[in-house]
Every structure is written in structure tokens, then in C-alpha cells.
Amino acid sequence: MFLRFLRTRPRRLRNATLAALSALVTVVALAVGVPQASAATSLPCDIYATAGTPCVAAHSLVRALYSSYNGSLYQVQRASDSATANIGLLAAGGYANAAAQDSFCSGTTCIITKIYDQSARHNDLTIEGAGGAGVADVGAPADALPVTVGGHQVYGLEISAGMGYRDNSTSGVATNGAAEGMYMVTSGTHVNGSCCFDYGNAETNNQDTGNGHMDAINFGTECWFAPCYGSGPWVQADLENGLFQSDSGYSKNTANTGTGAIPFVTALLKNNGQDHFALKYGNAQSGSLTTTYSGGEPTTSGYSPMHQEGAIVLGTGGDNSNGSIGSFFEGVMTAGIPTDAADNSVQANIVSVGYGGSTGTTGTLAAGSEISLRATTSCCTADYIRHQNNAAVLSAITSSSATVDKGDATWIVRKGLADSSCYSFESRNYPGDFLRHYNYQLYRQPMVGTTQFRQDATFCASTGKSGTGTSFASYNYPTRYLRHYNYNVYIASDGGSNAFDSATSWTDDVSWAVTAPWAP
């Protein structure tokens, strides 16, 4: 009876109803604990197609965005011989085969040179060339953003200043006031206030060609039109010559203070190209979408109607303004404006994936294991290495500590960025940020791919100098070991000119207990 009812409804209503049902099924499955690690029946581009707004671009480094897709996700190029390899999926509709990347890049480093479009349009992104505001970009390091998605160890795309991707010759992407929608999964912890971390529609010549010639999601802490509320980062619309939170540019929504430091964010923009656009965001790990603006196009001339040119940009502005930083895991662009029901269904699917979930291994130095590092000095056996305001400190952590504090004291073990026989430690709360030393002190910083960073973030393990636990020697200063001193963390020698090199209790201070993680 219900199917007969659907068949009698208009196509648009029928598709919206099916999309809503898909979202409901996913939410119910999550509520009752149905496993979601395997690929879902309907993935984002399946959902949008059912709603009558098919994907014209679908980019992801971590998973398929169609249930039937079984092609390549991205291409890497290794430094040792400039050879390239395509990284595909473990199974159709599934997750990236990161082991293939690890094998191909073993003993050297790789950059990402291409991100494949999973749609039939083949709008693949390659490293962006020079533009009106920036020289040619460079490829992002392929191993900069390890992450767990769907229970699998994969890699996202971590953009630093001077990196970006683009396709100036596309098929099917909206032009000259046509309607479109788009979303990306990004991160609220790897952002800045420079222009412009964008994903979406841009100029075809890498130049600023005027108002309304872009239609892209922007995510960062840059407030182009005051006032903006809170400290961001905000989901904004880069419509060229401005980052818009409303038709007036500035925020008219005092409740929109930004997403805060959410590790995984769904950012969404819809634009009918004529007289209306909308902005939404959500926590990609839980919950639903929030609409921060839905209303008219900017009132300044040139935006109503829009004048999109149909290029696709990722990581920079339309004229290759490339001072921004950001993270990208997946994103799509659609023909036409998706229904709210379809957006909700896509958000439910994203949540079901389990971005940033447990790696499944804890308390050991095996790659992928989640750990905490406890001091063994008699004064401090309840204290752990954690990051606080970007610096590594020693802090007491207990079962009653705040969730954020437990997360800050949890690290994911990775193969050493400079030597795979050693170790690097990725922040649990800040994906893509690693523990590294600078001027002998330890900090949490995003991996930028340089040789210097790789060496500074690599530590080689040995039996604890005190005879218990484990000591970690700096890769590039092998006589210096990870040490706590006055509740800060350094690489310290056994005696030296610095206060933190004091021989007093040195063997105890450099010996650490590798424990189960505080964050589950």
C-alpha cells in the first residue's frame, strides 16, 4: 500500500520521501547499534541522484561516494623516482586501500597529484597552476593526515599554505546562474584566517573575474564582512570578492559563532543561482545539520543572477589565493539544489561512517594503536603527556577529568614520519597534528611534509633508561630523549647547559609507561 502511494506521488515528492526514509533508516540503525563499518546501501551520490539532483563531481580520499564505485580515489607520486600510483578501494562502495599507498611510498615520501572524480563527468582535480594572487601550488604530502574512517586506516588531504587543486575544464558543473549544491567534510581544528580554503565552483582562468563568478564553500576563521559572531571557524559562501554569511555579507545570525574545534565538520552550500542561497553545517561524527543562513543572494550588484564559470577549486580561492590551511576528506557538487531531506540523509550517512573512530588497537607501540604516555618519576606517576595551547605539557589525568582533557592526553601511534622503524605520535583530538620538537621543546603541530618536520616528529624507542618503561630518542638528536621537566616536555640530554638537561632524575624523567588511552 505504501509503495503504491509513493508511485502515485509527483516525482519530486516521491524522491524527497525516499530520501527522508533513507535518513530515518540510517538513524534507526545507529540507535540500535547496527554495525555501519561496511559500505552503506546508499552513499551520498546515490542519495542525491534519488532526490533528482545527481552529483556532477564527487571527490574523496577516504571512501567511495557511490555504492557501485570501484575505481581510483587519488594518485600519489613518490619523490625517489617520480613514479605514480593510483590508490583505489578495498571493495566496491568501500574504503581507500591505504596499504597500497604505504607500500608504494615505503622508504621515500609521496605527494598527492590527482584526486579522481567518481562521477561519470570525470572532473578530476590536479595540482593548481599559477593565478592572479599566487604562484603555482605544490602537492600535499600523502601521509600528512592519517585518520580512521569506517574502522579503516586511511588518509585525508591536509592543505598547508601554497597547496591547492583545480579543474578548469569541467563537465556538467553549473554556469551562468544555474542551480547547484555542494558539501565537504573538513576539520574545525586545522584552520586559519587566510584566504581561502574553498571547495566548489570557480573561474576557469585562475583570475578574479568579478562578483558572482564563484560559488564555493569556504571554511576558516577569516571574517570578511564584520560583524562575525564568535571566533569561528565559519561555513561561508565564497561568491567572489567576499566571504558571505548572508545577503549583506556580514552575519545576521548571532547564534552562528562557528563550529569550534570539532575534528570533523560537514559544511554545505546551496545556491539557486538567481535569488537564494543557504549555508549549513554539522558535526560529521554525530547529530544533524544546522542552517545558519537561508535567504536572498548578496544585495551588491553581480550576484543576482550569479555568473558561475564552472571550474572546480579545492584549497584556494578562485584566483589561487593560497594562504589558507584546511583538511578535506570528501565532497560533492550536484546539478540542481538538493532537498533538505536529501541533505539530512547524506549527513546521516556521513555520521554512520564513523570518522575518527577508534583504531581498534590500544596500549601498545604498534602502528595505529591509541595510547597515553604516563610519567614514571615518583613525583608524577598520575601525570601524562598532553597538549595544551599547542604545547606539550605534563598534566594529571584521572577518570573524572573532562572529556577534552582525556582526548588531549591520547595519541595515535604512527610509523615514524622520517623512519618507519621509529614512531610518530598523532593527536587524537586534532587529526593530522603530531608531537614534534622545536628549539628542544615539544609542541602539537600540523604535519606540513618537510624533511625537517618529519625528523622533528620522529622518536625511536628503547628500554627505559631507568630500567622500566620506554624511552624515546629524538630521531635527529639521538642523544636527546623525550623528558618532562617542570611540567613541560623537552628533548633533553643527560647533563648540559639547559636547565631541562639537568642530570638530576634524568633517567626517571625520560622513562615513560605506554598505557591504554584515556580517550576511548
TrEMBL record:
It holds the Pfam family AbfB. Residues 373-514 form the Alpha-L-arabinofuranosidase B arabinose-binding domain. Residues 44-355 form the Alpha-L-arabinofuranosidase B catalytic domain. Keywords: Glycoprotein, Glycosidase, Hydrolase, Signal. The keyword Signal applies. The keyword Ribosomal protein does not apply. InterPro entries: A-L-arabinofuranosidase_B_cat, ABFB, AbfB_ABD, AbfB_ABD_sf, ConA-like_dom_sf. Residues 1-31 form the signal peptide. PANTHER family: ALPHA-L-ARABINOFURANOSIDASE B (PTHR39447:SF2). Belongs to the glycosyl hydrolase 54 family. This is Alpha-L-arabinofuranosidase B. It comes from Streptomyces prunicolor.
